[in-house]
Amino acid sequence: MAFSTAITPFSTLYLPIRHSNLHISTLQSLPIRCCSSSSLSFSTNESSSSKLSTQFDLKTYWTNLIGEINENLDQAIPVKYPDQIYEAMRYSVLAKGAKRAPPVMCITACELFGGDRLAAFPTACALEMVHAASLIHDDLPCMDNDPFRRGQPSNHTNYGVDMAILAGDALFPLGFQHIVSHTPSDLVPEQRLLRVIAEIARAVGSTGMAAGQFLELEGGPNSVEFVQEKKFGEMGECSAVCGGLLAGADDDELQRLRRYGRAVGVLYQVINDVLEEKTMKSKEIEDNKKKGKSYVGIYGIEKAMKVAEELRAQARKELDGFQKYGEKVAPLYSFVEYAADRGFRVGD
């Protein structure tokens, strides 16, 4: 069966950063086709992987898992002295509308290889903490200077720049501490935990997300691919790999997860660039071109959609290597289709 459908007008499209509610529909397999600037078109094919993703109800899976993740996050960041810092930390980590993509991907990857969900929750929460910290700092006036996040005042808008900086600074080490102090030792050997901590540190550090933020500040038309790989691909890559590490995946499997997570993370942002281009004013578009922030602004919609198609194909190809795990790989396939269809910034 094959079909084509045009997405709703860009003025009414769901944009994750500006919306406060979780919007996840039951997914269908939607390979991207190159399209005109006025709409995004998709069609389906009948591969075994597409059957898995069409039969899997990501909405129910994700909604139920988010409930468990939120409970764990609430317990992980209790308010204590100094109250104002903890309140600022909780404001961003427990914000309504957070899709919890990093922890969901981590837990799903862990379960793919037979790992216990209880073993993954501490790392999953840590990923959400460090991701929230990166968003707090990303929104600061000295960075992207964004007064809103997910339709709500950003952390520094609500608590002030000083408290926002402190909240972000506190969340990074709290994430690592939470992994060490809450991961059941009978489920995850110490050596695996060390690799998980090293993986997160690499992803958010000076050669990872921080490098992407640096080059985004520096700007330039040749920086967009590097910025997107570092700012968006790194978190997807790290989340998937951490889940595999916790469950004892072998090196070849970890490399597949690494390539998969990176492809999905960048795929979202390329699609998001296409969608945002239609909502921006001409001055904003021109500013993004000068700063090298928009893939579409630099290369145009047609090339952006070709890149998105390649990323989608790459992500699915990596997952094809996990077919032996049967239905356990279905959630990971569905994430790809959701990113291609609507777009989700991994962890936005």
Automatic annotation (TrEMBL):
Pfam families the UniProt entry points to: polyprenyl_synt
GO MF, one annotated term: prenyltransferase activity
Gene Ontology biological process: isoprenoid biosynthetic process
Cofactor entry: Mg(2+)
Superkingdom to which the source organism belongs: Eukaryota
Record-linked InterPro entries: Isoprenoid_synthase_dom_sf, Polyprenyl_synt, Polyprenyl_synt_CS
Keywords tagged on the record: Magnesium, Metal-binding, Transferase
GO cellular component terms listed in the entry, alphabetical order: cytoplasm
Family the UniProt entry places it in: Belongs to the FPP/GGPP synthase family.
This protein's name: Geranylgeranyl diphosphate synthase
Gene symbol of the encoding locus: GGPPS3
